[in-house]
Amino acid sequence: MNKLPPLIFEKSRDGKIGHGLGASQVPAEPALDADLRRTEIADFPQVSEVEIVRHYMALARLNYSLDAGIYPLGSCTMKYNPKINEKLAAAEEFQAHPYAPHDLVQGNLELMARLEQWLVALTGLAGFTLAPAAGAHGEFTGMLIIRKFLQEQGDARRVVLIPDSAHGTNPSSAHFAGYEIREVPSNADGIIDVNVLQSFLDGQVAALMMTNPNTLGIFEKNITAIASALHANGSLLYMDGANLNALLGIVRPGDLGVDVMHINLHKTFSTPHGGGGPGSGPVGVASHLLPFLPVPRVVKSGDKYRVIYDNPQSIGRIKNFYGQFLVLIRALAYLSSLGRENIRRVAEDAVLNANYLRKRLQPLLDLPYAADTLHEVVFSDKNLPVKTLDIAKRLLDYGVHPFTIYFPLIVHGAMMIEPTETESKETLDEFIAIMEKILQEAREHPEQLLQAPQQTPVRRLDETLAARKPVLRWRKGENL
Amino acid sequence: MALENLLFTKEHEWLRMDGDSADVGITEYAQHELGDVVYVELPALGREFKKGDPAANIESVKAVSDVFSPLSGTITAVNAKLSNNPELVNQEPYGDGFLFKMKLSHMDEIKELLDQKKYEEYLQGISGE
Amino acid sequence: MRYLPLTDTAREEIKKIIGIEDVQDLFKSIPRDKSFFSLESIPAALSEPELIADFRSLGRKNSVGEYLSFLGAGACTHFIPEVVSYLSAKGEFLTPYTPYQPEISQGSLQAIFEYQTMMSMLTGLAVANASLYDGGTAAAEAVLLAVRKSGRQRVLLAESLHPEYAAIIRAYVQNLPIELVTVHADKNDGRIDSGDLQAKLNGETAALVFQSPNFLGLVEDSAGLAAAVHQHKTYAVQVVTEAMSLAYLRPAADFAVDIVVGEAQSFGLTLGFGGPYLGFITASEEFLRQMPGRIVGQTKDLDGKRGYVLTLSTREQHIKREKATSNICSNEAWCALRAGMYLATMGKEGLARAAADSHLNAAYFVRKTDGLAHVRVVYKKNFYNEVLLEIKKGTADDFLAALKKNKVLAGVSLGWFTPTVTDRVLLAFSETHSREDIDRLFRLIGEYA
Fold first, then answer.
1. Structure ipTM
2. Core-most of A229, A250, C16, C361, by most CB within 10 Å?
3. CB count, 10 Å around CB of A85?
4. Are the Cβ atoms of B63 and C319 closer than 8 angstroms?
5. Hey, is the C-beta of C202 within 8 angstroms of any chain A C-beta?
6. CATH for the C82-342 domain, from 3.40.640.10, 3.30.70.1890, 3.40.920.10, 2.60.120.460
């Protein structure tokens, strides 16, 4: 079993050098007073290059990753990250300073414009900003756009409606855009009922924020009626595109009455999650909202690309520079590789795989919502001798990353499983066999599962201790 | 701990009356529902609350709950031990795990509180659901 | 298609098992009249060799790589040791999700814990988080943090704050009841006008947000500013757009600054045409429970062994929803990991050297340039690695165009941000510039006369 290495600070020894910088070539004549300069960075690591490599390789061995195996986290769309995309994103030709003159970076600007065209074609919306850094940042940007649009209409409004199955970022993003949140309950089928929605609609409702397919993996089939009801009320429809994978090449949200949506390039378009980021969350809008997109905007004029920095109706700037450019490279490379021949097959295979898991696991687990499954399926731990957490932890012993647990909140002990299209049937069969085995163990020796995991570098960690007595950094002589 | 002298709310807070002041904490039932408490955010001394205002905040690892002021009044003391030992809320909810002391401004509100017997009946009603 | 491993046989088997005739049956819940739209407008698939060729031709449309660059203003080239690129590209670091299952994520968690420690050492402040999107959004988060903690709604922004950062703060708070007030810079010295600061401070002021080194490259009087604002129980929030300065200047904690926030691209991240970069935030202990974003903490496992987890998560949106301290979910974890690798590799001596050389190169340039008639170093004192030039012959654009003809990008015109300013250019220096590079710049400036 792999063990945690000592901290880099504990490996440090005075006089060790890890870098290869040359000596300074200019006179050592500082222009700043000595009392403004620091004497040293106390306790900063001093480690040789070979030890750096071994330290991080030891850390790498402690991580599960998509390159190691299936990662069926629901609503996270952990699909394979193509390797050629990494090579292209690291290419020297795309490395440019963000304030480089535009005539020297026409390739980069064209790249952004091409990605925007792709997103427009796949969503049926009129235009996109590529600036937002992640999904939640996109949500916030979308909410600012809605707010600015309504303000300009002379009717700012103050309420955003959010279904009870929504991800926590939705209410938080709307809140920071200045909105009050009202929660709309899902019906027995796990979706929003138009009549229920109607009862929430009044002159204060700015928008409904709806994830579609929702976090239960169910398509909000009333979406066109919902859009009509909202629009009749002077409200807008925001679609959280976290689960767009299920719809690629199948349906364009813009055709369903969606006014604003964000896309997660790190989910749908295969860019690596990097252990929690960077992501990228482009926001698309219908044509009436185009003037409100954040700046800067890349536009083509003649055969040149230029950048617009001021736009009187824009919500302003929400991110430094142009956004997560190196993530955009990967997304464009992914889409270019798929092309029109394969784009629809992404959604089809993702949905086929999810339905296959649903069918095979249904005899073992409670399925709280029976409606058609798209890209993911949610089971509950009802009637099981152990809890969802125990099953998840036991999966670790079998070398498999667990599904999303305890979300959405409306399902008791939720197990939210999204295989994605990049897993083969053979891999899914292995996963199913492991689940069968674990559920058998749960029936026969439930107490064993409470001890899981046993095979991991560390066992269950004391989160209570971490939160009660926070230790957030190493200090000489103080840490464990 | 003599629970028969305490008063209770349906939000699972208790009060120990002392003239026109009261110690306030959360009940055994509430601490059990919350799980391991990791942090308690207490109100500033001198803060005035109306009955039902959020007055404190209790965090467990995976949840966070407001504690509503059970009556109207002014905060006159807070339990300083909780800043380093939030687990007292779990261990001694009716003793060293109390939250704060307040001087009451509307004594007539006391009538709306439950005595121990009524609170226990109320709890039975919840568990029967 | 190589990313789609389901064979036709497997698809048929799955269809049979789940009981459908046609794959389209899976999408019955989607309005049929809207679904299966025409894909004709979408480009055809590229093979892997075609993809490489296509991107190569895009790359050839960029010529910026041929130029010697002195561009800065919030993004700066610093040398990146090869081990950083090698290690950070490992799939074990690049392809995991957020470490919500700590037992199989100790690598990422320990690496972030080390990163947090090093950021805390650099600013001297007790608490560092696991990352924010970038410098500008981190500055906005710091404003929200100060407002939340103080319960006050008035925030002073120094005029010498990077204009993009100020714009992002404005966009972030546009619908919140927060009042933003600009504190002017002293025209002669380029730094905050302390008289104007005193006039605008009051008991309702949550924070002063100032940048140091500021947008014009100058080190502000952090000690004086912090002392002034603390008189009103107002927080001192320092923004840093050139993180390398942290390794050269005295730590903010020495000056009683409360929050240091900014951009850490200089720590091992390539220019990348502006992203992804790395927002950081460090703050004193009192902000611990109000911090935005993820934080890694140390704990023990069931056997009492040391391990790491994401902690204090009740602050975050997945638990607190609209009451969360920030809406951030995905952050810049990989960039923080890479920054940690960079800092550890450079080490105590190397980081100090790179930081010092960046300043010494700027100082060398200023000494050489002093005395020229057609350009003037506006502030000869208090700069770190950026230097503001006044162009006295022609405009800033003329100056930049002339040097560009000679394959030198001699800084950013302030007109990029404020179109009415036509005679100011900001140049950035780093340890990557050789003496010859700076001599060449100087020679070309001479030829511009």
1. 0.98
2. C361
3. 24
4. yes
5. no
6. 3.40.640.10
